[in-house]
Structures are given as C-alpha cells and as structure tokens.
Amino acid sequence: MAINYVIQAEVVDITADTPKDADVFLVDTNVWYWMTYTRLGHAVNPPPQYTTNYPLYTNAALSAGARIFHSGLSLAELAHLIEKVEREIYAAANGHIGTKEYRHNSDGQRLQVVTEIQTAWGQVVSLAEQLTATINTSMANAALTRLQTEKVDGYDLFILESMKNHGVEKVITDDGDFATIPGIQVFTANRNVIQAAKSQSRLVTR
After folding, report:
1. CA distance linking residue 61 with residue 55, whole number of Å
2. Nearest Cα to 61, choosing from 159, 11, 128, 132?
C-alpha cells in the first residue's frame, strides 16, 4: 500500500542540489549506515542503488565547508542495523539463527559485530559534531507532546527535539516521516517523498 505522506516540511531533492558552506545539517542514521558500514555489499538485502546519493551528498557538504551533526541516539539504531545484517549474512551461510542465539552463542561472531559497530561509529564521530540530547523529564514530556501530532518513531521524537533545541533545521535523510514535520527542511533522494512534496507544492529548489 502506498504511503500517504502529508508533507509539512520543505523538501529538497539532493540529486538536484549543491550543498553550501552556510548549511547546517543533521545526518540521520540511515545515511550513516550507508556511509560507514564496511560490509554493506555483503548484505542479503542490499539497499536500493539510489541510496548511494546520500554519501555523495554528505561528502559534498563536508567538502563545501557545511557543518554536519550526528545524534548520539543514532548509535543505538546503527548498532541494531549492523547486528541485524551481520546475523542475516551469517544465517545465509550457516542456516537460521535467532537474534539472541547469535548474540550469545558465538564469541567470534559477536567480536565481528562489535568491530563493525566500532568502525562505523568511529567514522561518524570523525566526520560530524554531536548534537547533544539530554533525555530528562523535560525532554520526555516534549517528545510525548510531539507524539500527539507528529507521526515519527520514538528515536526521531528525541532527535527532532534536539534539533529544535540547537536551532538545526536541515536534515539529510531517506526517512519520509521527517517530511511530515513542519518547520524543517528535508534533504532526500526518496522518490516517493519528492513526488509527494512536488504534488503538494512543498518541493523547493535552492
């Protein structure tokens, strides 16, 4: 079933945009995954070819002198993604294995997962400044308030709050949920989001 995005953000097609030195971006977890996971090419279900646009655009932003941020919350998501794909790679060669079995029953495989996560996260922190997010009562209450009107997952609730608190309005992401958030600019190569933004007059050219 097609996703009915109600576009509230300004959407920029990264395949038709050139980053500027004055840009300040938050780079979402999915982009870091495609940029930093060294065994992505071995994945059982590799990402679509168009996702290569994200590393190209992010690197172009860095070359242009733009400021690039990451969220510490992305570590949890990135670790989950990498462990999942490492388990799928292992299962393709050795037969089905559950997540808990994979995590606890093979020290060699666990070392592989930890090494991949450390390598990926090392690249993230070397390329981007951290957008701090203190998960306290105030932040949790703000996230719960946001949840009532905005259709994003739990991690993104906190990421959006930290963006707001630091005055960051631009996000590089493939996640269409961000395009439904007012007051931000979404830089994406997601064709469904771009088409929806175009039809709703929310696609902008800089």
Report:
1. 10
2. 128
